Amino acid sequence: MGVFFGSKKVKHTDKQQGITRRDVVKGLSAAAAGTAIGGLLPGLGSLSMASTNGSPETTTARLGFIALTDAAPLFVALEKGFFAAHGMPDVEVLKQSSWGATRDNLVLGSRRGGIDGGHILTPMPYLMSSGAMSDQVDVSIIARLNLAGQCISVGNEYLDLEVGTDTSQFAEALAAKRAGGDEVRAAMTFPGGTHDLWIRYWMAAGGINPNSDIATIVVPPAQMVANMRVGSMDTFCVCEPWNHQLINQGIGYTANTTGELWHNHPEKALCLRNDYIEANPNATRAILMAVMEAQIYCEQPENKEEVAQICSRRRWIHAPYADIIDRMQGNFDYGTGRVVENHPDQMRYWNDHASYPFRSHDLWFLIENQRWGYLPQDFDNQALIDRVNREDIWREAAAELGVASADIPDSTSRGIETFFDGKVFDPEDPQAYLDSLEIKRMS
């Protein structure tokens, strides 16, 4: 697997877009951190067509989403008029029933009644572009939508254990249940996707082999709570609001929020089919700028209640506001008596470089897919990342939007990452990380 690109530096320029725009956009970081700047986002929107790169080639795109709170930037970009402000008034944001449906509609593309891109599990564009899990179609990542914010939940059958990040006692309980003749199951949302990788990592760290000690099943996010209610699984991993809804309905509890496994881990991405990008480079940047503004909006504490209300609407998540608001504001009641206010591992939409798609993070997802046998060991990870990760488009959009230089990373790598169990991932030596993992399934 060799040495990767972790120390690569990227030089970015700050093109003048006009003094009014530049002065306004310099406030982005402060605004996202919670400092009120009156009229910031409307001011940006009114200047959006001042681009020196030309008007969008089309005013439309069909973007898919799954009913999860990390899709909020897409909802907000449409509801608050950011797409329209950037010359894309005909963008459609379309609910998908599952990640499998998202994949199938991406394969179709909008010309055949499918979608052009949208909210996606970060590994999926790689699995699709490689042809590993679908008909091969070139799909690119143009931004990250969020960091962290997923959770692993456990049924109340195990409430006495108060399972957290340590699964050793949970492993014993599962083994006893299995020995009694009952099946044990862990649910995730898509093979090789982020939820699959988080729950596998968590179980394996505590000695549970997800390939032999428990059945790993696929359940669409919005069906997790109902399936836990009827005993279809013992544990699951998904985004909000379904983990908090599980608690509110008295069915289970939160073992951990996934940022406890890996602080500020990458999660969902914004993707587009390559044929859309190639035909519509200006529209691609316009979509991205609208979503970036929405990410900033979602990050601002004073907007959290409104964002939760938007998410709760029928056309978006269609879940009670009470299931969404607490964790949207960073407050976590685990359902075990443990309560953490302003959680350090709450979801980030913009802060901490949440929007930038680090190439080193994409490498980790590919290595984990090799770990679990979804990709072959001789797979050329770097070549695929060069094809799929379009952080260059993100940088172009950031410069055009006037994002502060502090919010634009200097490197395509975030560097060495450390996990809750002490494992270390160095993007310059991914093989050492893979070799350090005791439980794995290699193809």
UniProtKB/TrEMBL annotation:
Q: What is its main location?
A: membrane
Does the record carry Transcription as a key word? Answer: no
One Pfam family in the UniProt entry? NMT1_2
Top-level taxon of the source organism? Bacteria
Provide the protein's localization.
Endomembrane system
Q: Read off the CDD domains from this record.
A: PBP2_NrtA_CpmA_like
InterPro entries associated with the record: NrtA/CpmA_ABC-bd_dom, TAT_signal, TAT_signal_bac_arc
Q: Does the keyword Cell inner membrane apply?
A: yes
GO CC annotations, alphabetized: endomembrane system
Q: Which UniProt keywords apply?
A: Cell inner membrane, Cell membrane, Membrane, Signal, Transport
Family statement? Belongs to the CmpA/NrtA family.
Matches recorded under PANTHER family:
ALIPHATIC SULFONATES-BINDING PROTEIN-RELATED, NITRATE_NITRITE BINDING PROTEIN NRTA
Protein name per its UniProtKB record:
Nitrate ABC transporter substrate-binding protein
